[in-house]
Amino acid sequence: MPPGAAAAGEPLDEAMRALAEPRRRAILRLVAHDELAAGEIAAAFEVTRTAVSQHLTVLKNAGLLSERREGTRRLYRARPEGLAELRDFLDDMWASALDDARRLVEADRAARERSEEEDR
Amino acid sequence: MPPGAAAAGEPLDEAMRALAEPRRRAILRLVAHDELAAGEIAAAFEVTRTAVSQHLTVLKNAGLLSERREGTRRLYRARPEGLAELRDFLDDMWASALDDARRLVEADRAARERSEEEDR
DNA sequence: TGCGAACGTTAGTGCACGCTGACGGAGGAC
DNA sequence: GTCCTCCGTCAGCGTGCACTAACGTTCGCA
After folding, report:
1. What is the mean pLDDT of chain B?
2. pLDDT digits (tens, 9 = 90+) for B48-86
3. Whole domain around residue B78: which residue ranges?
4. Residue B84, CB half-sphere, CA atoms under 13 Å: how many?
5. CA of B21: nucleotide with nearest C1'
6. Strand pairing partners for B65?
7. D25 C1' – A26 CA distance, angstroms?
């Protein structure tokens, strides 16, 4: 494998794919405010505990979740650093798109002023 | 279906699913700066023109793209408003996660101060 | 040491999705 | 009119993924 290539998905790609699933976003919102055990999280949904456990694994691998063990229980919490990465991506996209829009408005106004100049 | 659940495509959900695909993110980056025709976009990738066309449809339905016709050509451009929606979502998540982290640090410091108090 | 609770893991299934190839339609050049 | 370009759409195929049921593991407790 080439040195530059990621093992199994760039970090941003994994985070995006993880957040594409509505249930995983709901889980993330749940543990954004409070640290909860896997069982408590699973109880909040109408799917099997297994499904929730798999979702938690995906979120953890994507760097969006932190895990802490306490006896037989596993406590989960949202990880701000994981969210920061793709927030930067969106900020870049958003900024460039806005720049483009601003340039358009500017060009349009300039064209209109030239037109008014000719009218005089 | 529970009352709180989305029917089959909240705007944010569609945008997230659209951005989950790496190729679609690349397309979006391509038209973030310049307005390009479907053929020009397709030429930038090593997949069929058909695949790119379907990606463009998905992005357009998600509100992330604007379409403009010019003769037989169809020109595409990134739509800042579509990006704004999910940026707000991430901002909420990010803010609450950071709030949580700040509360944790605060609680930890308070506990440490209490501990030092007992040591005296 | 045995037992139950709390989770993760594995095998299997149904469905959504990205890709391709073939086809259809709209618009310009002659 | 005919031809060509540019592009979307449909049918089909393979893969990935969310889910379930059954099993394995770790920990606390009597």
Report:
1. 81
2. 999 999 999 999 999 999 999 999 999 999 998 888 877
3. 11-119
4. 5
5. C18
6. B78
7. 28
Q: Is residue A37 part of a domain?
A: yes
Instruction: Count the domains in chain B.
Output: 1
Are A81 and A11 spatial neighbours (Cβ–Cβ below 8 Å)? no
Query: Which positions on chain C have an atom < 7 Å from some protein CB?
Result: 4-10, 17-22, 25-28
The DSSP secondary-structure symbol of A6 reads: -
CATH number for the domain spanning B18: value is 1.10.10.10
Determine the pLDDT at residue A96.
67
Cβ-Cβ contacts under 8 Å, A31 against chain B: none
Which residues of chain A neighbour B83 with C-beta distances below 8 Å?
Answer: 90, 93-94, 97
Confirm if B35 and B68 have CB atoms less than 8 A apart. Answer: yes
- Taking the C-alpha atoms of residue B41 and residue B54, their distance in angstroms, rounded to an integer, is 12
Say yes or no for a CB contact (<8 Å) between B84 and A94.
yes
